[in-house]
Design brief:
β4 (68-71), α3 (79-93) and β5 (96-101) form a beta-alpha-beta unit. The protein folds into 2 domains: 6-147, NAD(P)-binding Rossmann-like Domain (Rossmann fold, 3-Layer(aba) Sandwich), CATH 3.40.50.720; 150-180 and 205-266 and 285-321, UDP-galactose 4-epimerase, domain 1 (Alpha-Beta Complex), CATH 3.90.25. The chain contains 14 helices and 12 strands. The chain has 321 residues and is of the alpha/beta class.
Length: 321
């Protein structure tokens, strides 16, 4: 049986590149639509199409003959209109849509509307993304909507800030659930390749909620340097984000970072169980993620008296084996 033809939109972003990796590891070469091929990783195996979501003709051409499409709302001022263009193209082709983004769920339509309204007022820059989740869920694309919260990879974007001694991601005192995008990439790949998974909304979460202090301590232990929590310092947050991001994405991150202080995002066993079923294994713990990044980037402290057989520090060596 031949593999379905898959189109991955946003393949050069943090999330999209993990979807490409997940598909490649399953022996699938996805089709991608990109403006700048140089942003693809050298290891990505893709069927390259040049184009833009603002060019419906190039999108329709890339969409021709596909069975399933992955889409995440872009950090753009016209993100709602761009998603409408994607939905129109998916519906025209008769393909299935797998979408990851903000999804607000409740027990009935009225409650969902009320929650969308409340969250829209609390996070005005995310009104578009909240609207997009609703548009996708109600579209004629047999959609699978993967609702996610905060990404562990936010830390990787700000890794030099962390190494300099500050952890600036704000969290509520009761904690924030965090997701490894590598897990999400594997889940998306599984769903794209399995048409028997029913349409609907599915939560994707990490195994536990963490406070900013806990995140800072984890990085400090792994790097062997003091890292302090600075998520209450707006100037530190703005400086860190401005040094690494630009444009609409910068303003989105500033807004969402500061809003995180007002939300306790608890970890529910039912959501961990649902994530585990989609993933085929337990979700990655934050400590595992941090040790992986430290190891991949060669950042671990190297005390001569405490190395394993491969020269990896013994605590890290044990965690990786």
């Amino acid at each position: 049986m031949s593999s379905p033809t898959i189109l991955v939109l946003g393949s050069t972003g943090l999330m999209g590149r993990e979807v490409v990796r997940g598909l490649n590891e399953r022996g699938v070469t996805p089709r991608v639509l990109v403006r700048d091929p140089s942003r693809l990783r050298p290891t990505d195996q893709v069927d390259l199409r040049i184009g833009d979501l603002r060019d419906p003709a190039s999108l329709r051409e890339a969409m021709r003959g596909v069975d399933a499409v992955f889409h995440i709302s872009p950090h753009e001022a016209d993100e709602v209109e761009l998603t409408r263009t994607v939905l129109d193209a998916v519906e025209h082709e008769g393909a299935r849509l797998v979408f990851s983004g903000i999804h607000i769920d409740a027990s009935n339509p009225l409650a969902r509307w009320a929650m969308r309204t409340v969250y829209g007022r609390l996070m005005p820059r995310y009104r578009g993304k909240i609207s997009i989740g609703h548009l996708v869920e109600t579209s004629d694309t047999r959609p699978v909507v993967l609702g996610v919260g905060n990404f562990m990879q936010c830390d990787e974007v700000l890794l030099d800030v962390i190494r300099a001694g500050q952890f600036v991601l704000p969290t509520h005192p009761k904690g924030l659930n965090r997701v490894d995008l590598r897990d999400l990439g594997d889940i998306v790949a599984n769903v794209l390749l399995d048409p028997t998974i029913p349409a609907g909304a599915y939560p994707v979460c990490g195994p536990r909620s963490l406070t900013g202090e806990e995140c800072a301590a984890t990085w400090s232990d792994a790097l062997g340097v003091p890292v302090t929590y600075a998520g209450e310092d707006d100037e530190a947050i703005d400086a860190a984000l401005t040094a690494h991001l630009t444009g609409y994405r910068l303003e989105d991150w500033k807004s969402s970072f500061k809003a995180l202080r007002g939300f306790a995002i608890k970890t529910k066993k039912s959501e961990v169980d649902a994530t585990t079923r989609l993933l085929g294994r337990p979700p990655t713990d934050f400590t595992e993620f941090v040790l992986r990044i430290v190891h991949e980037r060669g950042l671990a402290p190297q005390p001569q008296s405490a190395t394993g057989a491969d020269g990896i520090p013994a605590p890290l060596d044990a965690a990786l084996r």
